Amino acid sequence: MNIAQAPRRDEITLPTRNRSPRRTQDYVTIVLFLLPACILFLLFLVYPIFSSIYYSLYNWSGIGPAVNFVGLDNFKQILTDQVFIKAVGNCLLIVVLSLAIQLPMALAMAIMVGRDLPGRGFFRTIFFMPFVLSEVIAAIIWLSLLSPDPERGFINALLVLIPGVQAQNFLGDINAVMACVFVVLTWKYFGLHMLLYMAGLQNIPREIEEAAQIDGANRWQSIRYVTIPLLRSTIQTTMYLSVLGSLTQFNLIWIMTRGGPVNSSEVMATYMYRYAFIRFQLGYGSAVALVMLAICLIFSVAYLRLNRQSDPLSGI
Amino acid sequence: MAAIDVRKKDAFKKKLPRFFQYLVLSIFTLIVLVPVVIMVFGALKTRGEMFTHPYTPPIPAHWENFAQILTTGSFWRMLGNSLIVMTAATVGVLIACSLAAFVFARMQFRGKELAFNFLTLGLMFPITVAIMPVYLVVRQMQLIDSLLAVILVQTAFGISGNTLILRGFFLSIPVELQDAAAIDGCSTFGFFWRILLPLARPALAAVGALTMIVSWNDLLTPLVLLNRDSLWTLPLGTMQFQGQYSSDLALTAAFVTLSALPAIIFYMFAQRQIVAGLTAGALKG
Q1: This prediction's pTM
Q2: Exposed site from A180, B123, B210, B217, fewest CB < 10 Å?
Q3: Chain A partners within 8 Å of B115 (Cβ)
Q4: What ipTM goes with this model?
Q5: Is B279 within 8 Å of A195 when comparing Cβ atoms?
Q6: Which pairs count as long-range contacts for A258-265, CB under 8 Å and 24+ apart, including other chains?
Q7: What residue segments make up the domains of chain A, in order of their start?
Q8: pLDDT digit string (tens) for A200-231?
Q9: Which CATH number fits domain A76-133+169-307: 3.30.70.100, 2.60.200.30, 1.10.3720.10, 3.10.450.50?
């Protein structure tokens, strides 16, 4: 009996109901190894999102159980609130400015530094430093730089040196405040993107560019038709990080302007924070969070489909 | 004579772009550094000096602002809280992610692809988007006002990206190694613990360094989950300090400088690991 069955165990390819001890042990390993990650993931990501779908249907201040069912009214109110529309617009403005200015600038700098400019490591270290500082620190530093009083704000101190120019109240000007936020974001994140591009450039074999130049391509042509296409996946990933970061920006704006003046620098995250944690309208706040989540999800799925990537970090 | 002229022109042609490159790089360096330098200058001035000449180098340097902050307990308490949260979250991420990454890189089971795709879905939800739902759950668990909640949430939101990075690294380790270990009688866990993890040390260092930075700089999680000021972490405390002492620019500058210092020191020592964590591709190669 035993002898007759023995060879069967080796036929691994056959689907069999009798699992060998080895396979059972593997299944135990799989379950045990996945357990910590899965519990945390389900408890703090999946479950919260589903429970907030429930709360978003209620008018709930967070005290006692949610009983005041309002259906989709919260969502109706969000999508018709001019302030929220403005917040979405500001997020998109940051997205567009980042993609049109910040990333091309970082790419140009990375290509300019190239592979072997003496001192490239030094410059990389300097440019990347703001990324390591927290957004809190960046915000406070720039808050004082942008101060309207030339004796407190360095930028105005420089401005008033130019004859005929007066000190500007940058963060108090509804037309200038988003530009200022963008400047600070660029100061903080420009180095990150440049670093990613420099790493991407490192992976392109030098011979390919040399071959293009032997074939008569000038410097610009070899960048346009060789370097940039080869950096494609890195560029896509930086675009993904940049868009997602812009859509969910909170810290800088909250510390520098609190979304003001008169909502002119409101973004989705500050809007959500205000309703959920200052006015304590948790039902409405849940609905705002879900709308934000939907916007991020739509963008992510569209990105993955368009680029046929399995995960958004595959370019780095 | 003419030949020398041509050569001179060539040299000039080569040097001009170099000069231009360094010019642009220097301008950017100034833009990056000047804000930080002005803050450090301010931190070393008295309140009076800050009004009379706010931007000049602090000569002689006054260390009173630093002394004032360092002699009150609150700064040290915030530093301690930040250290606890950062260490625990980093250890949590390393354990949870290396275990999960090992399964996804090395084991076979039905629904593996699906489970992995599901886990990487987390990449699309930065903490900002999910903080409101997370707050409700933490409240249900009665964990508001505890550092444990901050640690668990930071760990949970580090799982997707770091599992992805570590899985990429584990995949690059030859399968033959595992077969050889199995033939020698090594169990799956033995292979993971005694062979794979030591080999993956650079990847673990990169993931760890990056997680430390993210945790250290996180404002939103402690802002939402912690009320008691004895639990504040450094970013949260720095924000509150700025709000409270915004009139005393020199003191605020000193606080911000002190709060930036750990990150800068860490950056100087762990730059290679941080960069490797961000450019995960470099690890695979």
Answers
A1: 0.87
A2: B123
A3: 34
A4: 0.88
A5: yes
A6: A259/A87, A260/A177, A261/A171, A261/A172, A261/A173, A261/A174, A261/A177, A262/A174, A263/A83, A263/A86, A263/A87, A264/A86, A264/A174, A264/A175, A264/A177, A264/A178, A265/A90, A265/A177, A265/A178, A265/A181
A7: 76-133+169-307
A8: 888 888 888 888 888 888 888 888 888 888 88
A9: 1.10.3720.10
